[in-house]
Design brief:
The chain has 16 helices and 19 strands. It has 470 residues and is an alpha/beta fold. The N and C termini lie far apart (69 Å).
């Protein structure tokens, strides 16, 4: 393998030390240098679209080329274009306000590269969730080390080889390996560490970063609810929720996890969901558009969620049985499961959709607020007053109204969680600032009144201070 591909802990330490030293000696303060790196990222992505898509499909057992194009390549290219368009203005030193009491002095904010950024990428969207953090880190003038997920080994190898061809190992290094490598990576004293994955592992990453006081961005998950208001168009609700639940077979951190809906609408929801699935995924067992579960361990985990539930509570949306050998899991709806069951306690990451009985808007809000704060919250309805009530009485990483998932592709919005669903946000300008030190600078004028602020304190000083502290 290329020297930019790290596979052992000794290599990891040596490369970390090398890149960190360079980040101190040769900071990337020029937009020309940063833009060139973004150009290289764009070229790498353009030249390896098919290679990446094929590797991902093999890792999953099958994933649609179109799904990879739509959910990974498209937002990655858009993110690069957005950073190239705006990055030069983001990095400029900007004036900040100042109190009239200190004028004619003035304040500035000077964005500076942090230095060396570590990225721990997940397996579910390995292109977008590797490229996205890299865009922000490189636009902000940082060097990057990225640890690929061991659950998608073929993509990890393809990505590492592509990076080695398009980037100097002084700028970008790819780390591949098992859990031991991931643990060692998270213990390195990076200038910033971004992790995308489960909440349980996120806790371990934060604990590993703590001894070094490494600042972290944790993009986690959780159970993202759908609140269906009384005046919602149920056909539209089903159309959008089922799209979000079947995309990547539900293996999406912001997939709609469960639906809060009045019990009188459950049967109609199930009927519409079956019709939707038949229309969009006919012959699901052989349909090239339908993705498989990533590995045997996750498939077994999902079967473990469903097997304890009463049969009448689990409603298949097709006549096709789950196939463990192929890791094919057709979508199912779970009718009003007990809140203490695993299907309601754990993030599903699967085409499993619980429908929860609620008696109106306030009941739905109370249900959401009784649980950890979600990464995303989806509201369907027409009455703006009721929509605003849900928005203002719940806290979530992000919100989409009459839609699901699409907020992640908005480069003018920050993306991140809150509470157990994450720490910090990135994308676009928000990611640039997250990956920069926004240094405050106070510039004193030659003409200033600081001389009267020195001891021995005069009556003028006392009178002035008394006036200011009234």
């Amino acid at each position: 393998m290329s020297q930019s591909i790290i596979t052992t802990i000794d290599q990891l330490q040596a490369q970390f030390d090398h890149m960190r030293a360079l980040s101190r000696k040769k900071p990337l303060n020029s937009w020309i240098d940063r833009e060139a790196l973004l150009d290289s990222l764009e070229t790498m992505l353009a030249k390896n679209q098919q290679v990446f898509a094929d590797a991902i499909s093999q890792d999953f057992g099958h994933r649609s080329q179109d799904e990879t194009n739509f959910a990974e390549l498209f937002p990655s290219f858009q993110g690069i274009a957005h950073a190239k368009k705006h990055g030069k203005s983001w990095m400029k030193t900007r004036r900040a306000g100042i109190s009239t009491l200190f004028r004619p002095a003035y304040n500035e904010i000077q964005p500076q590269p942090l230095g060396l950024v570590g990225v721990i990428a997940p397996w579910n969207y390995p292109i977008f969730l590797s490229i996205g953090p890299m865009i922000d880190a490189l636009a902000a003038g940082n060097r990057v080390m990225i640890k690929m997920s061991e659950s998608a080994p073929l993509f990890a190898e393809a990505f590492a080889q592509a990076v080695a061809k398009h980037f100097s190992p002084d700028m970008v290094s790819v780390v591949v390996g098992d859990v031991d490598i991931a643990v060692a990576f998270s213990e390195m004293p990076f200038d910033h560490l971004l992790y995308t994955g489960s909440t349980s592992v996120g806790r371990k990453v934060m604990a590993a970063a703590a001894p070094n006081l490494t600042p972290v961005t944790l993009e986690l998950g959780g159970k993202s609810p759908v609140v269906v208001l009384d005046d919602a168009d149920l056909e539209n609700v089903v159309n959008r929720v089922m799209m979000g639940k079947t995309l990547n077979a539900g293996q999406t951190c912001i997939a709609p996890d469960y639906v809060l809906i009045h019990s009188s609408l459950h049967s109609k929801f199930v009927k519409l969901a079956k019709e939707w699935l038949l229309k969009h995924y006919p012959n699901i067992e052989s349909n090239d558009d339908y993705t498989r579960i990533i590995n045997d361990a996750h498939f077994k985990r999902l079967q473990g969620y469903l097997s304890p539930l009463p049969k009448e509570q689990v409603v298949p949306l097709t006549n096709v049985e789950a196939d463990a050998e192929k890791r094919l899991l057709p979508p199912v709806i779970v009718l009003n499961p007990d809140p203490e069951t695993e299907v309601m306690q754990n993030e599903l990451f699967a085409p499993i959709l619980p429908l929860i009985h609620v008696n109106g808007l306030r009941d739905a809000v109370e249900f959401v607020n009784s649980r950890p704060r979600p990464l995303a919250l989806y509201i369907f309805g027409e009455d703006n007053k009721n929509i605003d009530y849900v928005r203002s009485h719940t806290v979530s990483g992000g919100v989409a109204i009459n839609e699901v998932i699409m907020h992640v592709a908005q480069h003018e919005l920050p993306f991140g969680g809150v509470g157990e669903s994450g720490i910090g946000a990135y994308h676009g300008k928000w990611g640039f600032e997250r990956m920069s030190h926004m240094k405050p600078v106070f510039v004193q004028s030659k003409l200033n009144a600081m001389s009267i602020m020195l001891p021995p304190y005069s009556n003028l000083f006392r009178k002035g201070l008394k006036y200011l502290t009234k």
